[in-house]
Amino acid sequence: DTAVSQTPKYLVTQMGNDKSIKCEQNLGHDTMYWYKQDSKKFLKIMFSYNNKELIINETVPNRFSPKSPDKAHLNLHINSLELGDSAVYFCASSQWGREGTQYFGPGTRLLVL
Amino acid sequence: DAKTTQPTSMDCAEGRAANLPCNHSTISGNEYVYWYRQIHSQGPQYIIHGLKNNETNEMASLIITEDRKSSTLILPHATLRDTAVYYCIVRVGGNSGGSNYKLTFGKGTLLTVNP
What we know:
Helix content of chain A: under 10%
Radius of gyration of chain A: 13 Å
Oligomer: heterodimer
Strand content of chain A: over 45%
């Protein structure tokens, strides 16, 4: 069983489109995260949710809107996609009180043309 | 969180021990040292963490100097599958809220294990 899964694995789309990436974890964790890894391979936090409540929003453009319907899911919706949004997006989860130990998904490779 | 300094790249022969250094001279008393790795095209993977005592698990050993200003991750018998970027991260342990939820990744060390 995959601990942290993301769909889709690859996403190719045109500028201006709206797209969503989904993340699910079956570890029973209550904190979930979205990270972005750009072409230079820098990995940066975007959002963190704890028990469906937004904890961290790292000055991400408001075209990015995370949604957590329950503790096991954290989705990322992106409006009006831009070329600079092309990156690999990783979802992660952790247990309460053990936020340094995060489990990452396989990533979603987004290419905006 | 304290900053860390790691070599950009290292090589290791298959079957030999890989010793990856990390400097964190500004670490404070309540900050832990975490190690993650990222194998090509995969998500980061947690390896090990420690506060001041040496730690060992099934993946690796972590040696932290007595002054805690540096640490070394040891992969005792490196295999080709250990080729990855290794990240040393220093952060406050546990949950103290707010920005403590995030991991701040640097550039890491690209470890290449050669046959």
